[in-house]
Amino acid sequence: MADNGGQLLTIFFFFDILDFVLLLLFTTFIDCIVYGNPSFTLFLYRLSDLQTPYLSFPLQVDNRPKYYGREYHGMISREEADQLLSQAEGSYLIRESQRQPGTYTLALRFGNQTRNFRLYHDGKHFVGEKRFESIHDLVTDGLITLYIETKAAEYIAKMTINPIYEHVGYTTLNQEPTLKKLLPLSPEAPDGPAPAKDDNNAEERLTSLVRRATLRESDLAPKYEKVHNFKVHTFRGPHWCEYCANFMWGLIAQGVKCADCGLNVHKQCSKVVPNDCQPDLRHVKKVYSCDLTTLVKAHNTKRPMVVDMCIQELEARGLQSEGLYRISGFSELIEDVKLAFDRDGEKADISSNAYEDINIISGALKLYFRELPIPLITYDAHPRFIEAAKITDAEKRLESLHEALKLLPPAHCETLRYLMAHLKRVTQYEKENLMSSENLGIVFGPTLMRAPELDAMTALNDIRYQRLVVETLITHEDVLF
């Protein structure tokens, strides 16, 4: 329709069919929460409160940015934008700031008032964390969010109070027969891996919570605590939160998903989910460059299998090898061992038949520790270990190191204990391999306790203390662990 002497043309900008179906589902969900048992008539009545967005745009505007369409109105004031948008709920426009030329604002009519959001573009449009391909999608998602947060604000605030997280009843939904088939048949069932099932797809149909519930106590040992590795995720189709059991709303980035175990939750729920991530091998694709705790929990082992297997191989045929750990093997063959572990896991062949040079195996072990995203001696614990190394009194230094070890995650501490015990056995063959605890400290210091982001001079000064830490851990392994 024409307005203001033909200077303004207003048109309706309807959802596409998918947007509209999703909006129906989300609105129905809120009606269920806020208005009790909804009839179809009540649903239609409440749906009428939420208008499909329409935009208003002028016939001609100079200097329009190439990434905006006809919703762009140029440099107009808040008051002018409010007057233009007062015609209908859900209308919107983009204006350039008069106070800060070159910056843009999305003006959106909702709740009988005009709301203004600073608008950004870096290849995609965004006003917050979510990024959209088009202004239309941004506005659509914004209207859904505003509608839900307005109609169900009180309920949303209480969503995390009574979670269903630990109740298998909800997460099984209609999959109870599958769950019963995967659970042990009796309390007397022996420990160890569950027997293979004929239905290979059964477990894949389970949610991450149900999969966790089917694991027996023996399968969860050792019980290392692990935080979830949540990443913002866009879910296709309606999805519910596995913490509070409520739907996740929006067109994109409706919630977060744990990259290690697949748990799907609202962003606000992710802040209160317990640190009980049980990584799934379907999500943990690598051995090298994988978080240590994630790897051991995914494989239900005390230590990374690469550490156990390499050390067993080294002790079987390499303890008397001159320059063990100091002499490097061929880098291409070390990379080959890495690829074998990433591809085959515990089935990787690192025997003398595959790699005759023992330095290739020692090089692969050192490479594993170098590529850990969080070092074996973690960034958080690093300062305490350096402080301990600076103590001149030997007895007090041991006490300080013992306290510093308590700061390590359990899986890190167990792996460090196992490695130090191995390196101590290496020193027992010092006459043959010429590797003392001091020499091993020089080799492993920077590998096991990489410094946090420090200036070059501080990092250089820390090297001697890193050596001293590893040397002391090897020498006094039986006392410190």
TrEMBL record:
Residues 71-139 form the SH2 domain. GTPase-activating protein for p21-rac. This is Chimaerin. It comes from the Eukaryota. SMART domains: C1, RhoGAP, SH2. The gene is CHN1. The chain crosses the membrane at residues 12-36. The keyword Nucleotide-binding does not apply. PROSITE patterns: RHOGAP, SH2, ZF_DAG_PE_1, ZF_DAG_PE_2. Keywords: Acetylation, GTPase activation, Membrane, Metal-binding, Neurogenesis, Phosphoprotein, SH2 domain, Transmembrane, Transmembrane helix, Zinc, Zinc-finger. SUPFAM superfamilies: Cysteine-rich domain (SSF57889), GTPase activation domain, GAP (SSF48350), SH2 domain (SSF55550). Residues 290-481 form the Rho-GAP domain. It comes from Sparus aurata. The keyword Zinc applies. Pfam families: C1_1, RhoGAP, SH2.
